[in-house]
Amino acid sequence: MSSLSIRKFMEELSTLVGKKVNVVTTDGRVIVGELLGISESLSLVLGRIQGKPDVPKLVLNGEYVKEISLLEKPFDLRILAERISRIFPGMVRLREDIGAIIVMDKIKVTESGVVEGTGPSAERVRSIYEEYIRELRKEREEA
């Protein structure tokens, strides 16, 4: 496998960290929890394990991981960019290559929120982002 493929694979794996996942082991067990960490060998650290409130963290050797499935709807930058575009028409660029939305060439928004930019425009973008996050959380709670 080329180094570019390996890098892309690891980038994709890292997007699962902090999310609720379903893990199937080679012996058929199913474990649902929040993915706290993952290694290149697919060794996992899970927290908030469903059905095991007394276990704060579980480390699973990668040799026993058969499948990892994301149980949450992934963060969709396109939807957020569309919402921001309604307020800032013609001033929003979606940069999927870097996982960011650029507003007015001075405000940068990622899955983490507004990471660059200040002033009233940045505050307006931040409020749009926060509203979007509240809606996502509500959807997850209802699911």
Describe the structure.
- It is elongated and about 55 Å long.
- The chain has two domains: 3-70, SH3 type barrels (Roll), CATH 2.30.30; 77-142, TATA-Binding Protein, CATH 3.30.310.
- The termini are far apart.
- It has three helices and nine strands; from the N terminus they run αβββββαββββα.
- A five-stranded antiparallel β-sheet has the order 4-3-2-1-5, with no helix packed on it. The protein has a four-stranded antiparallel β-sheet with strand order 6-7-8-9, covered by helices on one side.
- The longest helix is centred in the last third of the chain and has 23 residues, at 120-142.
- The protein is of the alpha+beta class.
- It has helices at 3-14, 77-87, 120-142; strands spanning 20-25, 30-38, 44-47, 57-60, 65-70, 92-95, 100-103, 107-110, 113-116.
The structural domain count equals 2
Uncertain residue segments: none
Radius of gyration: 18 Å
H and E string? HEEEEEHEEEEH
| Helix residue percentage | 25-40%
Distance between the amino and carboxyl termini: 38 Å
User: Quick one: overall form?
Assistant: elongated
Structural class: alpha+beta
- Strands of the biggest beta sheet: in what spatial order? 4-3-2-1-5
Largest beta-sheet details: 5 strands, antiparallel
Q: Return the average pLDDT rounded to an integer.
A: 91
**If classified by CATH, what would the architecture of the largest domain be?**
Roll
What is the CATH topology of the largest domain? SH3 type barrels
Q: Class of the largest domain in CATH?
A: Mainly Beta
How many DSSP E strands? Answer: 9
Query: What is the overall number of helices?
Result: 3
Strand content: 25-35%
